[in-house]
Design goal:
α5 (about 170-180) runs antiparallel to α6. The chain has helices at about 35-45, 55-60, 65-70, 145-155, 170-180, 185-200, 210-215, 225-235, 245-255, and strands spanning about 1-10, 10-20, 25-30, 45-50, 75, 90, 95-100, 100-110, 115-120, 125-130, 135, 135-140, 165, 210. The protein is built from nine helices and 14 strands. By secondary structure, it is an alpha/beta fold. The strands form three sheets. It has a six-stranded mixed beta sheet with strand order 1-2-3-4-5-6, with helices on one face. The chain has a six-stranded mixed beta sheet with strand order 7-8-9-10-13-14. A hairpin with a 3-residue loop joins β1 and β2 (about 10-20).
């Protein structure tokens, strides 16, 4: 499997997921059509599928156009039928999706939206997380609550640590700056922040991350960490001593960061 990240819109990524044996490909989150067709042409592959993680326009805005121009199957949460344009194949937790000979398992990860899903290519150790799990961050809670997001992230956190994480936005530097604010003694955060800043100065993407890296640097996977908890309780002195409450306060703090 070859994955080509394609910058789209202002700070989104769409991904071209390529089966190199069959020279076929899927687009993960088709925001814009022309950049994806150009990427496919450059790679010499045929797009046969669109894998939508959730219904927000900056992730599905190109679905109808691409489906009108080339024959593709459009996958997304079955419960989002009517919200995901051009949906042909509704899927749910545990279903499998094929891109040529490649196989992805659907993981239901709601909270950013009620129908958000991720696509996990187990054999290739890669997961496409949309706006649920970012490098050093998670999505805003537009259609869910802190406990639901915690549960969604916990599912992703069970994947092997070497699993590559392909998220939907280039938010890494700002997310790591927030993480460093809460854990200034965390060397993994400081080192990754320096690396991410250098990558962005060079115009390079900071993705993929890995599950292992996220365990060490992502505040939304670290609600039990004592330094982080101390930083949160300093800012919210009346907060209940509960992991979900700490997570929720961390998310509210990030919303204002």
């Amino acid at each position: 499997m070859r994955v080509v990240p394609v910058p789209v819109l202002s700070d989104n990524y769409s991904y071209l997921v390529i089966d190199e044996a069959e020279r076929t490909a899927a687009v993960v989150d088709c925001s814009e059509v022309e950049p994806m067709l150009a990427a496919a042409q450059a790679e010499g592959v045929t797009i046969t599928a669109v894998l939508s993680t959730h219904h927000h326009y900056d992730h599905v805005g190109g679905n109808e156009e691409i489906a009108g121009r080339i024959p593709v199957r459009v996958y997304g949460n079955a419960d989002d039928d009517g919200r995901i344009p051009a949906l042909t194949d509704g899927v749910r937790e545990g279903d499998t999706v094929h891109v040529g000979q490649l196989e992805a398992r659907v993981i239901y990860v709601p909270a950013h939206t009620s129908g958000h899903i991720a696509y996990y290519f187990e054999e290739q150790r890669a997961v496409f997380t949309g706006d649920t799990l970012f490098a050093a961050g998670c999505g805003r809670l537009f259609e869910g609550d802190p406990e639901q997001m915690m549960n969604s992230l916990a599912k992703l956190n069970t994947l092997p640590e070497a699993t590559k994480v392909y998220a939907g936005h280039e938010y890494t530097v700002k997310n790591l700056e927030f993480a460093y604010l809460l854990e200034p003694r965390n060397k993994a955060i400081a080192d990754k922040l320096a690396w991410a800043r250098a990558r962005r100065r060079e115009g390079q993407p900071t993705l993929p991350s890995t599950i292992g890296s996220e365990r060490n640097t992502n505040p939304f996977l670290r609600s039990k960490n004592q330094e982080l908890r101390a930083a949160i309780f300093e800012r919210f002195p009346d907060l209940e001593d509960d992991e979900v409450e700490v997570f929720g306060a961390t998310r509210r703090l990030k919303d204002e960061f």
